[in-house]
User: What shape does this take?
Amino acid sequence: MKKESTEVTAFYDQYVAEQANTGINDRIYGVYERMKALGFSNQSSVLELGCGIGMMTSLLKRTVNQGKIHAIDISEASITMEKRNLEQHTLPSVRKTFCLRNFVNYAGFHYLD
Assistant: This one.
């Protein structure tokens, strides 16, 4: 199981550039729009599992300006890029937590903020 976990992590660490080239696609934007329609608001608390480089997180922060966003991913490279991108454009009142988490074998949380 550890080998599979390492392979998954390595794949997503190498996938960062592809994600950056893709950007916010219709699927991601559609999920964001459905969340807003269901009552997502400026004071919402959001747990984003598999945040990647933060495409959805960047949309979430458009609405959440007094709530919390917890972004979790297995790839440290993805989280590093997400943090760098979001630091420039996030309101200080939004509480952001970035966490490296291995969901394959449920290893412990490793907070990166």
Remarks:
- The CA atoms of residues 61 and 90 lie 7 Å apart.
- Helices lie at 2-14, 16-22, 26-37, 55-63, 76-87.
